[in-house]
Amino acid sequence: MTGAGGADRSPGDIAPVLVARVMLESLLPQLDRLFDYRIPDHLVGLAVPGVRVKVPLRSAGRVSRGYVIEVTSDAGYSGSLSEVDEVISPVPVLTTEVWALARRVADRAAGNASDVVRLAVPPRQVRVEKAWQLRQAVVAPPDSESTDSENTIAPETLTPPQITGYGPGAVEAALERRARFALAAVPTVTQTSAGDWVGQWATTMAAMAVFTLGLGRSSILVVPDYRDQDQLEAALQGLVSVGLLAVESIARVDARQSNSERYAHFLSCLEERPKIIVGNRSAIYAPAHSLGLIALWDEADPLHNEPLSPYVASRDVALVRQQQSGAALAFVSHSRSTFVERLVELDFVEEIAQNPRFLPHVVPTSSQASTDRFAQYARIPTSAWNTARKALETGPVLVQVARPGYAPVLACSSCAKPAHCQVCEGPLQAASRNARPSCGWCGAIAAQWSCQYCEGTSFRLVGNGSSRTAEDLGKAFPKTRVIVSDGTRSLTDVPAAPALVVATRGAEPVAAGGYHAVLLLDGERMLARESLTVAEECLRWWSNAIALAAPRAPAIIVGVGGELARTLVTWQQGRFAASELADRRTLRFPPAIRLATVRGTPESVASAVKELHDSVQGEDSAKIDVLGPVPDEGDFVRSIVRFDYSVGATVATTLRAAVIKNAANRRKPAGRPANYRTPPTLRVRFDDTEILD
DNA sequence: AGCACGCCGACT
DNA sequence: GTCGGCGTGCTC
User: Fold this and answer.
1) For strand B, is any atom closer than 7 Å to the CB of A665?
2) Least buried of A33, A100, A514, A623, by fewest C-beta within 10 Å?
3) Sign of the torsion formed by the C-alpha atoms of A489, A494, A497 and A502
């Protein structure tokens, strides 16, 4: 330990003691604050804000990794300081802006800032970093600024691409004044200058980003999955191909990237030059230089939810980052989520509607099966069958189904009760017509199955997965090519040639030129799911599928009537979202309120809930209520706290304090194996909407 | 998490 | 007397 070094300096010394305030890369809530370390002389100038460092913790010999957050000359800490051990890399990878974002996102969710930083900063790759540093030194000689900019005239400053489908200049104006807006995507497909077919939303977002680049600012474009990412990148490539965008201006954050690719793209974001950053939910944390736009495609897609602690969805991060950076914020989608609707009703987010209005041709149809013997094969109503047959003469037809596989459910052929696995009681299903039935949970083949109710030994197929629907459609349309796209084998695009494209919801490929008809077959089944948010979700899936149709091509929705059908026909998802939100308000369900799930020992949960009630007294006490506790895993219990947005900060700080308090007193492992890890006695998770399903 | 400090039981 | 049990608390 070298702590005595600081004490040797007399107060009158010339050299001021430089102190690095360091965030430790620790999972422990107790350590989620800044620690002060003296910067030794040989690291002065190297230990700057943003760099990764190694520092001693508690005693010499034990080192922890961390990031320098701040360098000051006056230590806030009165005890004797240890010294920074080592600067791991000179590159300041944690920018001031991203640190501030991580801190606030963590605070909002009662989580560790270091957990958020781990999402924001990819693991270091030494070779990649060395190569980048070398390139930086060569590319940017500090003296030749004028000639440099002449050589690399940003093409995007020459001719901004049109943002069509809205009032002239409407989107551009919103971007210029850095507005927060919900943008209704034009529900059709379009061809890029490079010849690729993409959803028009992709070209809209690409044009928005290029326009922002023309303002000298970066954009972050966040999409839920890689198929959306491919469309958006194709749209950007289209602008590259006509010289409206330089390919070096695009940076990627992609789940498919290798560690070195990811780090290379991350480093490129750190460069001074504004960029268009395209990626999945992690992209929301990219260290964009001079951020001018944050745009989310289809914000309600569950893939925007971060599965890692502290589980903050990209839209929540986007809202925090928008406030910190002052960038424009765009929620682009076909349907309107209740979440965005709430922000619109608060006038926190403005609406930009289509202008002129492009209306898909949606036809609701009753689910009554046809009397036509061909249509009966596929259980398709006559009108839908006729539509499909006619459309198939000229181009591809999309058939959206609810579930993948063949027959999702098997039943006993004598008593009709659902068949269960004899190993684990899971549901049995069939992979194809002749496949041996297997368990959907444990995968065991049901070899010598007998019904637990009536001793029957044969099955009946119940329900239709994508491949069974495909098989049936193949019989109904004998000469037609049938393409299946589902969770296991999903396609990004299909050609313009006639074909039946059977896809599970969310896995629909883009067709060149758009589908000549869209059939939404499993509406009833999709709606039958027992969930509070099922209507909102169905509307999103259906809207997205309908938006893949060619202009004026019919989209037939089978077996769905009432308000949902009316919403699709009039394409007024906003109105539906408003009535959904009103229902959630009366029920006190998200997004009308927020949630915090508190799990732990009965005592720790009870005391956390008590502190919560103590922290919001008086008139605010009505803004919070607690459901439970109910039994959870082990001998733990779970309570759900519902609270108004206005007391969110209080709830988060109170629960955070309870987590830290409980982190200290660990329970003794009574009679547990030696390697047993004691779980924390209190865990908190914010805005887990699945908990109410 | 680790690791030190601290205050009670059976041992050379 | 003291070696060591692990409950409690801190980490710049």
Assistant:
1) no
2) A33
3) positive
